[in-house]
Amino acid sequence: MKVDEYNNTVLKLKKNAENGDVGAMAQLGSLYYRGVSGNEQNIADAFPYWKMAADRGNDECALIVGKCLQRGDGCTRDPSLGFSYLRKSANSGNVEALDCVAECYMDGFGVEEDYRKGYDYLRKAAALGHQGAKSKLGFYKEPNEYIRENQTGDDDYSNSYNTKSSGSEGCYIATAVYGSYDAPEVLVLRDFRDSFLNVRWWGRGFIKFYYFCSPSIAHKLQKTKRFNLIIRDILNHFVRYLMEREKEWHTS
């Protein structure tokens, strides 16, 4: 598309969008996001048009807006508002949104944790053919079994395993290694957890696994000086790597 042709298309779409054309709003968002015809990719310009389309019932744009709000892409980060757009998209039948809403309920990300609701959304996504949801169903327990274990305390690590990753819980191992929850290195690792891992389904899976394993490891670190030094050296390298590439993982 040539520059003049692109500009004419944008002007026409803007006029149609002003007249309430939802398709034009969605198209404008895509044009700005792709940065076609020599223009820079600009998600900040794309976001308002996606939001306009989402507010008028476009489920695909509601999914995009929800994800942007969760990550802070082109807008102010707001996981709670992001969840409301994801749920709006899911309730319109968007399969990808169903899977995202399931993860939010499971993790308490942007909404109060509710395992049963999360499992129901996951089951709906799987029934509609979402491959990721199908795989996750084998990972999560049935709601009655999950609730029974957490009520009776049968699982020694159930509280650690189901810790809300988006909350203020500490990085157990890093805190044990550096001796303080507020150590600069721990702050970097927590930021990486919240800004990068926690907005990806596989990252949230890793966080769950980490909270399952880390309390016992942290306990051992406090008693074994040599092992502590080895882990600290590894973490120091990783923290430096994160600091050098902070812009990359904050915007990816």
Question: Could you name the key traits of this structure?
Answer:
mainly alpha; 252 residues; 15 helices; single chain
Tell me what you see in this structure.
The two termini are about 30 Å apart. The protein is flat. Helix 12 crosses helix 14 (about 225-245). By secondary structure, the protein is an all-alpha fold. It has helices at about 5-20, 20-35, 45-55, 60-70, 80-90, 95-105, 115-125, 130-135, 145-150, 160, 170-180, 185-195, 200-220, 225-245, 245-250. The relative contact order is 0.07. It is built from 15 helices and no strands. Residues about 150-170 have low confidence and may be disordered.
Outline:
The protein has 252 residues and is an all-alpha fold.
User: Averaging pLDDT over every residue, what do you get?
Assistant: 78
Tell me roughly what share of residues is in helical segments: over 70%
Q: How many separate helices?
A: 15
Shape verdict:
flat
Number of strands: 0
Spatial extent as radius of gyration = 22 Å
What kind of sheet is the major sheet? none
Low-confidence stretches: 152-169
Distance between the termini: 28 Å
Instruction: List the secondary-structure elements in sequence, H or E.
Output: HHHHHHHHHHHHHHH
Sheet-strand content, in percent, reads under 5%
Summing up helix and strand content along with how strands pair, one would put the structural category as mainly alpha
Annotate the secondary structure layout.
Blueprint: H1 3-18, H2 22-34, H3 43-55, H4 59-71, H5 79-91, H6 95-107, H7 115-127, H8 131-137, H9 143-152, H10 158-161, H11 172-178, H12 184-195, H13 201-221, H14 225-244, H15 246-251
Helix pairs in contact: 1-2, 2-3, 3-4, 4-5, 5-6, 6-7, 7-8, 11-13, 11-14, 12-14
